[in-house]
Amino acid sequence: MFLSVYKNSFVGDIYLKSDGENLTHLFFVNKQRFLKPFADDILDDSLLIFQETKKWLDIYFSGNVPNFLPKLDFSGQTDFRQAVCKEMLKIPYGQTCTYADIAKVIAHKQGKKTFSARAVGGAVGHNPISIICPCHRVVGASGSLTGYGGSMFRKVELLKLEGVDLNKFSIPTKGTAINFD
Q: How far apart are CA 14 and CA 92, in angstroms?
């Protein structure tokens, strides 16, 4: 596996991981996530997938909507987590949806009346390709921004960048993924 770093003064360094062809991970390193599990990965900025991903990120952080997606690979995830990631990819730039919204779509696709929003929350929390697969756009039904593994600071900044009106949301003060580092 290959690793690259996208330097960003807005939200901090972003780490990219690839199988050589596809982007498999995009994440922040903070108190909750360390690089130790990636110690055996090879640093290689020359891969085409890293160049494409960095171009996507450049466009995104300039306040524009990228008109392409780098090749993404969610195959390391369960079928359910992959289904949740596919739904997150449909959330438009500058908009949000709730865990319950995603649960309704998945329930419909599975021919069920309901599906657990909490289960969706668990899958969203395991999204391996942050920002591009926009888990920061998923919020609680109560209007809470809820947790974000990349830190609440980053979730707020990403939503602000996209022009989301944050006045209609509350920021939680307790939880497992609300750190502000």
A: 22
Query: Which residue in the block uniquely carries the two structure tokens 């756009």?
Result: 137
| Helix intervals (H) in the chain | 48-61, 79-88, 99-109, 117-125, 152-161
pLDDT in tens, 21-48: 999 999 887 655 556 666 677 888 899 9
Is residue 151 pLDDT above 90, yes or no? Answer: no
What the block records as the tokens of 137 is 């756009």
Judge whether 45 and 7 are in contact, CB under 8 Å. Answer: no
Coil vs helix vs strand at 136: helix
Distance between CA atoms of 129 and 126, rounded to whole angstroms? 9
| Active-site amino acid positions | 135
Rounded-to-integer distance, Cα 73 and Cα 160, Å: 28
- Helix/strand/coil for 135: helix
Q: Which tens digits make up the pLDDT trace of 105-127?
A: 999 998 998 889 999 999 999 99
Average pLDDT of the chain is: 89
Phi, then psi, of 12 in degrees rounded to 5 = 95, 175
d(CA 138, CA 97): 5
Q: Classify residue 7 by its DSSP letter.
A: -
Looking at residue 29, its pLDDT comes to 75
CA distance 171 to 125: 17
